[in-house]
Amino acid sequence: MAFPIRKLLLVSLLSALGSAGALAAEQSHFEHFITRDGAALKDGDRVFRFAGIHAPELHRIEDDARGTCKADPRGWGQYFRWPTAEEQENWIKALVQTGAKAQRVYVLSVQQENDAACGRETHILAPATPDGMPRLNETAMKVYDNMIAEADKQGLRLILPFIDHWWWWGGREQLAAFYHEKPEDFYRTDSKTYRAYQDVIRQVITRTNTITGRHYYDEKAIMAWETGNELENTNADFLQKTSAWIRKWAPHQLVVDGTYKKVNDFALNDPNVDIISNHYYTNAENNHPEQVRKDLEAIGGKKVYLVGEFGLLDQQDLNTIMQAIVHTEVNGAQAAGGFIWGFRGHRHDGGFYWHKEFTGHYSYHLPGFPVEGKANQEMEVVNLVRTASAQMAGLSQAPALPVPEAPKLRESNSPFAINWMGSPVGRYYDVERATQPHGPWTRVGQDISDGKNEWDPAKMDLFRDDYRSLTLGQTYYYRVIAKNESGQSAPSNVIRLEHTQKNLPPVITLQDALSTTVDKGVQLTAAWQDDNLPEPKVSVAWHHEGKDNVHFCDSTKAETRAWFSTPGDYALTFTADDGLLKSSKTVNVSVKAAAGPVPADYCHFGGGTLDVSKGKLNITKSDKDTLAIGEDGFLGPFANDGDSVTWQVNAPWDGKFALHVKFNGKWGSKKNSFIVNGGTPVNIEFPQTDEKGQTMIVPVTLRAGDNTISFGKFSGDWGYMFIKSIEVTAE
In b/e form, how buried is each residue of 400-415, taking b as 16+ CB within 10 angstroms? Predict the structure, then answer.
C-alpha cells in the first residue's frame, strides 16, 4: 500500500512520540505485525492461520448468574461488569495454552437507557454537549488496555470490532440516539451518527495504552480492526470511507469488513479492506461446510477470508465446518481461520462465567470438562478446535496440554466455603489440609471440578470440608493443587481458617391447626431453615402415629397433600434432619365427614392440554402486531396492553397445582403475566427460545371447582411473547 509522504511523516512522528512517550513503553512479545499477502495472512514470512473458540467478553462480561435486569424492558440479562486483571490473564492463558493464536472479541459497548438502573457501565459515553462527540469511559478503556497488554504478553493476536449492528450490548441504535437520529443513519455517511462513529474510531486507535505505553496503532497484538459486528446494511460509501479512515490512523494493522451473510463486491475492490468476514448461523441459512467454498469462490483470492463466528450446532456438524475451514482450497486460497461461538472463563473467586443460548447450548469452558460439560459436548468441541489449530500448523494432532500452574486460593472465613480461581488449563483439583502452616498435609478433597455450568457464586462453593472431621475451635490451613493429564501444579497459596461454626438443628415453620373434610383432604406446607451443617442436605418427612387412616401423597416432601379415611382429629408431625440433629413440629388437623363425592385419586390430576383455540381471546385494537393465532398454533405477540387469552379450568380440590405452559420466546426473553381467578398478576420471566418453543412449569394455587387462568400483557409486562397451550396437573 502506497501512502503520501506527508502521511508517512505523520505516522512516523506519531510512532516516535508514542515510543518515546514514553520511554516506559514495554517490549512487545511479537516481532512483526500481521500482514496480508494476497489472500493469506503472514507473520513475517510465515503463513498465519488459526482456529479457536470465540472469546467475546475478554473486556466486558455479561454475568448471567445475576439473571435478568428487571429495569431493562428488553429482556436480556443485561448485567455487565468489567473483568479483573487476574481474570483477563487467566482467560488469555487458557486460550493460548489450548492452541489459540488469534482471537476475535466483541464490540465496544455504547451507553444506553436503563444503564444506571441495571448498574452497568459502557465503553462509549454520551457527548458532554448536545452536538459533541462521544467520550470514552476511562475505567472501561483501562480494562481494554489490559486485555491488549496481556494478549501481547501471552502471544495472542486480536481482532477488534468497533460498533454493533445490534442493540443488546449497546450499538448503532444507541449511538444514533445521542443525536436524535435513527439506527439506519449509522450507515449514512452524512449523518451525525456516522461522524460520531468515525470519532470513536479515531479516539480508540490513537489511544495510549496505560500499561504498555504504546499507542494502539503500535500494538502488534492488534492484528486487525473490524468495522463492526454483523453490519447488515453496509454500503459502498460507508465501507470506503470507514476503511480509509481506519487505515489513516492504523497503517500497520489490517482492516476487516464487518458485514455478514454476504460478500460485498465493493469490499473486494476496496484497497483498504484486507479481510472479508462471514458469520455462519442457522437463522442466516449458511451454517454448513459448503459456505466455506462458496465464500472463497466469491472472494476469488482478492482478500483474506475469515469465518468470524459459527456455532450453536452438534459437535459433529461443528467439526465438519471446522475441517472445511482447515482444508478447503479454491485456486490456492484458504480461509485464514474460524471461531466457534463462544467461550467464557474462570471467575475471580471460583467457578466459571457462563451463558446459555436460546438453542440450549452453553458457552464452552477451557480446557473442557467431560462430566459437567457432557450435555454441551464440551470436550468434543474443545478437542476439535485444538485439532484444527494443530492441523493449520502442519501437525497431525494437538500437542499435550501444559502442566497447570498453581491455582489461586481465595480468603475465606469458613472451612465450608473454600474457593479458588482455577488454573488456566486445570481440569481437576485436590484440596489439602494441615494443622500447621507448613504441614504435614492431608488430602481432604480429590478430583474436584470447577467446570459446572450455571455456576452461582451466591449459592455455590467449590469445596466444603467434612464437619465431622473438624474440631470446634481448632485452626486449620488449606491449599489446592491443580491437575490435568500432563501432571499436577505446585500447591497454591495457603489460607488460615479457624473452625468456629457450631451445628444447630433445623428451625421449622408450620401452621398450628387445619381443618377439612374427608372428600377434600388437606394441603400441607412446611418450611425450614438450616445452617447448612454438617452439609447442606436436610432430609424431611411427614408421619402420623396411630391408626392407618392417614395417607400422604409424598411424605418426603415439605409440601404435599394428605387425605383421611375417616373423620377425626389428627396430629401430623413434620421432621427435618440435618444428619446430626433433627427437629420436629406438629400440626393438628380436624377432619369432618364428607360434604361431597370422594375423589378416586387425592394425589394425581391431569386436566388435559388446553390450546389457545380453547381459550377466550381479548384483542386490543391496533394498527400493527395484532394478537392472532399463527399457522404454528402459537398465539401472539401480546404487544398491546390488555391483549390476553383466558381458559376455564376445573380443579378437583383446593391447593397447589403445576401449570405447564407451552410458549416460544423467538423475539427474546420477556416478562409477561398470568392471572388466576382475577387475582394479582403473577409475573413470569420467559427465556428466549427458538420457534419450536419449550415448556415451562408455573406453580399456581387453585380452588376446588371452576377457575379462570388468563395470560397476556398486563400492566408492567413487556409483551412480544407467544403461547400455544396450558395444562394443569398435580402429582
Answer: ebbbbbbbbbbebebb
At 48 the pLDDT is 98
What contacts 10, CB < 8 A, 6 or more positions away? none
Q: What angle do CA 218, 220, 383 make, to 5 degrees?
A: 155
Burial class of residue 136, CB neighbours in 10 A (0-12, 13-18, 19+): middle
- Tell me how far CA of residue 435 lies from CA of 268, 415, 431, 462, 475, in angstroms: 68, 13, 14, 21, 6
Instruction: Fill in the DSSP letter of residue 312.
Output: S
DSSP class per residue in 19-57: HHTTTTPPPPS-SS-EEEETTEEEETTEE--EEEEE-TT
**CA distances in angstroms from 455 to 355, 458, 477, 578, listed in the order given:** 10, 9, 26, 24
Q: Enumerate the β-bridge partners of residue 315.
A: none
Residue 615 has pLDDT above 60, yes or no: yes
Instruction: Give 426's DSSP letter.
Output: -
Average pLDDT, the chain: 92
Phi, psi of 683 (to 5 degrees): -80, 130
> Omega into 440 within 30° of 0, i.e. cis?
yes
Confidence of residue 45 (pLDDT cuts 50, 70, 90): very high
Nearest-angstrom CA–CA distance, 138 and 120: 14
Interhelix angle 315-327/378-392, rounded to 10 degrees, is 10
| Sign of the alpha-carbon dihedral angle for 280, 282, 286, 287 | positive
Which residues are within 8 A (CB) of 500 and not within 5 positions of it... i.e. 6 or more apart? 472, 473
DSSP-derived pairing of the beta strands 507-509 and 135-136? unpaired
Q: Is CATH 3.40.50.300 the right assignment for the domain spanning 5-392?
A: no
| C-alpha distance from residue 628 to each of 372, 452, 690, 691, 721 (Å) | 42, 41, 19, 16, 12
pLDDT tens digits, 657-715: 999 999 998 877 788 899 999 999 988 888 888 888 999 999 999 998 999 999 999 88
Residue ranges of the chain that CATH labels 2.60.40.10: 408-498, 507-592
Q: Strands 539-543, 527-529: parallel, antiparallel or unpaired by DSSP? A: unpaired
The gap from C-alpha 20 to its chain's centroid, in whole angstroms, comes to 42
As a whole number, mean pLDDT of residues 532-542 equals: 95
Q: Which residue has the cell 480494562?
A: 143
3-state helix, strand, coil in the chain (%, to 5): 20, 30, 50
What is the number of other CB atoms lying within 10 angstroms of the CB of residue 40?
Answer: 17
Give 110's contacts (C-beta < 8 A, 6+ positions apart): 122, 123, 124, 134, 163, 164, 169, 170, 171, 172, 174, 175
More confident residue, 547 or 616: 616
Give the sign of the dihedral formed by CA 181, CA 186, CA 187, CA 189. Answer: positive
* Of the options 1.10.1740.10, 1.10.10.10, 2.60.40.10, 3.30.499.10, the CATH number for the domain spanning 408-498: 2.60.40.10
Please give the helix or strand (H or E) that residue 453 lies within, else none.
Answer: none
d(CA 512, CA 588): 6
Nearest Cα residue to 15 out of 149, 210, 203, 215:
215
| Length in residues, the chain | 731
Burial 469-486 (b: 16+ CB within 10 A, else e): ebeeeeebbbbbbbbbee
Fold of 605-730: Jelly Rolls (2.60.120)
